[in-house]
TrEMBL record:
This is Periplasmic nitrate reductase, electron transfer subunit. It comes from the Bacteria. It is found in: Periplasm. PANTHER family: PERIPLASMIC NITRATE REDUCTASE, ELECTRON TRANSFER SUBUNIT. InterPro entries: Multihaem_cyt_sf (IPR036280), NapB (IPR005591).
């Protein structure tokens, strides 16, 4: 018991000493931290995600935060990466409440209102329950729109992404096979 207590006390002391030395180290380095360069320059290939997320700034130095990204509000529908991708939201959704009492999204995206607002109505899947039965109103499992649909911002990617959609893959295969398929 006494040995355990002693070991615990030593561990706590060690922790304090280490924490203190880190804080001192931090303070000494503040002046030498270079300002973070624009993100795009730091986009690194696959395999260096952690580095890229830190924009190449060493782990023991503090990065200057980037300016807040702005939500893109172009009203232009975006291409989907694959057929069942929930489309991204092409407009800003500031102050659109989705709560137990009200669903702002359905003001425009419900079938009955869509024409008035020139909005695409939610597709039939949004009225289906988990047994594929069609309901008269939006299905509870599609009620919280932002679970699946998100806005996009003008933030620069921090990690390189090599995603190719199926049409690109097929086109490449076809070209390789001499284009006779
Ligand atoms: C004031 C009406 C209005 C409200 C409220 C609204 N939308 Fe929209 N939405 C539109 C219109 C109109 C479009 C068609 C593109 C455009 O003009 O922005 C659209 C487009 C979309 C699309 C793109 C569909 C596609 O096929 O690419 C998604 C997804 C979407 N909205 C989701 C939402 C979500 C989620 C909410 C709630 C957080 C919401 N909308 C609230 C009017 C609205
Ligand atoms: C569980 C995920 C999920 C939720 C929650 C969800 N959606 Fe979707 N949504 C999808 C998927 C997947 C698609 C594309 C395939 C499809 O239509 O089912 C889609 C398609 C859409 C489309 C395009 C329809 C079309 O015909 O092009 C709109 C608009 C939309 N959703 C709006 C909404 C709104 C508004 C809500 C909230 C009331 C909502 N969605 C909730 C997954 C979801």
């Amino acid at each position: 018991m006494a040995i355990l207590l002693l070991a615990a006390a030593v561990a706590v002391l060690l922790g304090i000493v280490i924490a203190l030395s880190f804080r001192l180290g931090d303070r000494k380095q503040v002046a030498s931290v270079p300002p973070a360069a624009p993100v795009a320059e730091h986009v690194l290939p696959h395999g260096s995600q952690i580095d890229a997320m830190r924009r190449g700034i060493p782990i023991d130095e503090e990065a200057t935060p980037l300016p807040m990204a702005r939500v893109l509000n172009t009203d232009l529908k975006r291409e989907r990466g694959y057929p069942m991708q929930p489309p991204t939201i092409p407009h800003s959704i500031d102050n659109y409440q989705v709560t137990v009492n009200t669903n702002r999204c359905m003001l425009c995206h419900a079938r009955a209102n869509a024409a008035d607002f020139q909005a695409p109505p939610v597709s039939v899947t949004h009225y289906m329950d988990r047994d594929d039965q069609f309901l008269a109103t939006i299905s509870p499992r599609r009620y919280f729109c932002n679970q699946c649909h998100v806005v996009q911002t003008d933030a620069q990617p921090l990690v390189a992404n090599g995603f190719r959609d199926i049409d690109t893959v097929l086109a490449a295969e076809q070209a390789a096979a001499g284009g006779d398929r």
